[in-house]
Amino acid sequence: MKRNTVLKLSGVERHYGQGDTQLSILKKADLTLNSGEIVALVAPSGTGKSTLLHLAGLLEHPDSGEVSINGHDCNGLSDDKRTAIRRSEIGFVYQFHHLLPEFSALENIMMPQMIAGLPRNEAKQRASQLLDYMRIGHRGAHRPGELSGGEQQRVAIARAVANAPSLLLADEPTGNLDPETASYVFEALEALVRQSGLAALIATHNHELARRMDRRVTIVDGKVVDF
Ligand code: ADP
Ligand code: MG
Predict the structure, then answer these.
(1) pTM, rounded to two decimals
(2) Does the C-beta of 49 come closer than 6 Å to ligand 1?
(3) Which end of the chain is more exposed for a tag (fewer CB within 10 A), N or C?
(4) Which ligand sits nearest to residue 47's alpha carbon?
């Protein structure tokens, strides 16, 4: 499979607060992620993992530096363009599933596709395939509240990749699960990444899972470093 640079952060800075109370979370941070690679982001709480993922996911703007998705610098783009890129190129998974409680698992996965303009029957077919792929095809009609934590996260992952993004960002996606379920959910996520060739950046405190990824990075003094 041909490897492309999917995500590139160059000299990214993020500060909170002002004047004397300024907190520098990211200081000239660099990170490159290629298609087909799964990278673990392992760092203590409060070091800036979520901040980094939000910047990479175009949910926030850096104070300076460049955030490029598939070779395009996204900083100068309008909010509409950033939203369009986020919808088509980026999938996000949170620690708590953030699924819509009033809709079934299948409908939750159909939703982003229909927002992207896919006809209902096509969205339904892809949602079904993704649920099968995550080995929860039999749970499609159930609402999130009727699913286990591991099942909810597998639906959230399926929803994140529903529009075939090139980048998957996950913020402690198994942080709420017992080790065995976490391992199983990660296995499903990994299979999906391998099969689709997308690039994944996964924040985790689970060192066992981190070891199973292609590469591990951490945040030291505001910079992203391999470890
Ligand atoms: P992590 O995900 O690694 O736990 P975060 O990226 O959430 O870390 O936060 C990094 C630091 O930035 C923390 O000290 C947090 O309190 C601070 N922080 C995050 N968001 C804001 C904000 N909107 N305003 C002020 N400080 C913030
Ligand atoms: Mg966080």
Answers:
(1) 0.94
(2) yes
(3) N
(4) 1
